[in-house]
User: Fold this.
Amino acid sequence: MFKRILSFIALMTAAFAGRPDVVDSVQVDSLVQALMEVYELEKGLSYQTGTVELYNGVAKLEVPQGFKFLDAEQSNMVLIRFWGNPPSDNTLGMLFPESVTPLGENFTYAVEITYSEEGYIKDDDAKDLDYDDLLKQMQEDAAESNQERIKYGYMPVDLVGWAAQPFYDSDTKKLHWAKELRFGESEDNTLNYNIRILGRKGVLVLNIISDMSQLEVVKPDVNTLLSSVNFNEGYQYKDFDPSIDKVAAYGVGGLIAGKVLAKTGILALLGKFGKFIIIGLIAALGGLRKLFFRKKIDAERPVQKTENEAEKM
Assistant:
């Protein structure tokens, strides 16, 4: 299905670029049908508000006013079938601003929620972190990893810098920061806004999916998102029992540097396809709607057409 959608985007791009020679009408009809199936699935999504239990009662989400929540099953459908993310069982759900839909032309951002149970993360290093030094190290790591990314068919990714410097609240045990990323030769950079909530046995991960043009839209909502998710009693940071609980092999600096990156689904999407998937698919849907409604109009026309009308079709 997803390869067909990518092909559709390529065909639509060629058509809009004035290259009808590469657009096969049979292909387009088939791909339109595939994309319509996805569009119909999107219309059937069922969102929640209010209180949502996460990860079998480990944590709780109070869906903020102005937002809506999509459960794990439907979120996986969005991430995998809609956006082309590799299969994953880590997703607990997704938050969307109330007016935003996954494939809507008004898409601004979404938040994927996951949980990484890698142990209690000591925060002793947080007060001594030099974020400029940490950024340089992360940039070097990203540059080194690009060779492997290219080898396996992934886009290279460059860490341009902080879009928002890391901030750790030692009282609430909540951490957030944002990175500006460049994928391949893309002219527009990607926003990777990260929220982490430390708990007794692991960390809640909130990754915001967007691009740099939406930074000023995202920033005012960060505090709201931070306060919306919390560990339940017994799983909070203060509940750590050194006699029985595992301690993670990294601290706050390691968390920012990306020690749990491989366990989150979002960067797998962005790393392989960049913003092309989200933005390209939305653009394709816009073209699809125009094509669909044109087909609907044509279907309502009389069967008999003049030669001029036939030539215009």
